[in-house]
Design a protein that fits this description.
seven-stranded mixed sheet, alpha/beta, cytoplasm, one-carbon metabolism, Aspartate Aminotransferase, domain 2, pyridoxal phosphate, Aspartate Aminotransferase, domain 1, EC 2.1.2.1, 46% helix, four-stranded antiparallel sheet, transferase
């Protein structure tokens, strides 16, 4: 049984009103943030069950609390589905989110002070790949690879040179703003040459991997981490997939190394999402995400926008808007007013600061979940161009007029495409 909305309204009308407002916002705007998506009604229901009442420290068959007869089955189902979907020896579905999942990998395979290697954050990497403001950059000797200035792509020869010089214990591939296919075989060859553990962070592309729209790291990476939302279209959680060699160390690092009882309601939602991801419909959705991203990229480039690496192979685009006479932060805020939800983002070798960068990151997973295709992506590009042009004039009346016009057209479009989990 799921939560009764009448109970929420009667108990806490203030929170109920805010939840309803957020539901309306999600329905009436275009979600273009690459790390966001919509879950199905089934995932929402599983995530809002009485499973939240149960504490379950430990693993199936090895708990520290009694009353686990049902919970053990749910977690085992989620594990089995993850292993089957991705083709791995081992799966841990307990991490609370992507960052703790990555921390568990460090705890399982490295010691404080060890050298670790990952993509630099300004190039598209993630905080937990050893960046200075993260605990991983404090506890470990972190070295970073970049993308090429001329084409925005990772130079694997440079990665190899850095790995040979620094001899890292861990090498991370993957990140948070990488618009191109990750060359897992090349990373694996380098990791093997220097004796490093290769970790593939596929948080952004897990749904594309599951749906066959991006090559899989299985068979190349020793350990794979991922969130369960984003393109995988599950609840806010994470998983660690690994070869049998690292299974025990990973499980011990997650519990008791970093956390206590898992969030059983989230585990149930993950299990449902994994079942959905094993269907032919999900595979078509994954491939449509890529088609939509490429259509959006083509239309933006036709309108004179500069894209990092010249385009995309996956679900996201990284766009430098300085040539248009604007910067990322004010543009993101203007687009938000127009009903286009984005995030400002640094671009490789960005001369501006992270909180006032030159670029924006765009993603197509959520729009694809609503059933939108290439035709709607071209409309989105037109609206972005319209708002950019108005913002560049630095005239508030011109900008307000453009925002009002785009907002009206966005409202018309969103009314034609239901939101999964909300419109049934």
């Amino acid at each position: 049984m799921t939560t009764n909305p009448e109970a929420l309204r009667s108990t806490d009308p203030q929170i109920a009103e805010l939840v309803n407002a957020e539901e309306a916002r999600q329905r009436d705007t275009l979600k273009l943030i690459a790390s966001e998506n919509y879950v199905s009604a089934a995932v929402l229901e599983a995530s809002g069950t009485v499973l939240t009442n149960k504490y379950s420290e430990g693993y199936a068959g090895r708990r520290y609390y009694e009353g686990q007869q049902v919970i053990d089955q749910i977690e085992t189902v989620a594990i089995d589905r993850a292993k089957a979907l991705f083709g791995t020896d081992h799966a841990n579905v307990q991490p609370y989110s992507g960052s703790p999942a990555n921390l568990a990998v460090y705890l399982a395979t490295a010691k404080p002070g060890d050298t670790v290697m990952g993509m630099a954050l300004p190039m598209g990497g993630h905080l937990t790949h050893g960046w200075s403001v993260s605990a991983t950059g404090t506890w470990f000797n972190a070295v970073h690879y970049n993308v090429r200035r001329d084409n925005g792509r990772i130079d694997m020869d440079e990665v190899r040179e850095l790995a040979l010089r620094e001899r890292p214990t861990l090498i991370f591939c993957g990140g948070t703003a990488i618009p191109r296919t990750i060359d897992f075989p090349a990373f694996a060859e380098i990791a093997q040459e220097v004796g490093a553990v290769l970790v593939a962070d596929i948080a952004h592309i897990a749904g594309l991997v599951a749906g066959g729209a991006h090559p899989s790291p299985v068979g190349y990476a020793d350990i794979i981490t991922t969130t369960t939302h984003k393109t995988l279209r599950g609840p806010r959680g994470a998983m660690i997939l690994a070869s049998e060699q690292y299974a025990k160390a990973i499980d011990k690092a997650v519990f008791p190394g970093l956390q206590g009882g898992p969030h059983n309601h989230t585990t149930a939602g993950i299990a449902v999402a994994l079942a959905e991801a094993a269907t032919p419909e999900f595979s078509e959705y994954a491939h449509q995400i890529v088609r939509n991203a490429q259509a959006l990229a083509d239309e933006l480039q036709a309108r004179g926008f500069e894209l990092s690496s010249g385009g995309t192979d996956n679900h996201l685009l990284l766009m430098d808007v300085t040539s248009k006479g604007v910067t990322g932060k004010p543009l993101a805020k203007a687009l938000d007013r127009a009903g286009l939800e984005t995030n400002y983002n640094t671009v490789p070798y960005d001369p501006r600061k992270p909180f006032d960068p030159s670029g924006m990151r765009l993603g197509t997973a959520a729009l694809t979940s609503r059933g939108m295709t290439e035709a709607q992506m071209r409309e989105v590009a037109r609206w972005i161009d319209q708002v950019v042009g108005a913002l560049a004039t630095e005239e508030s009346d011109t900008l307000d007029k453009a925002i009002d016009q785009v907002r009206g057209e966005v409202n018309e479009l969103t009314g034609r495409f239901p939101v999964p989990g909300l419109d049934r």
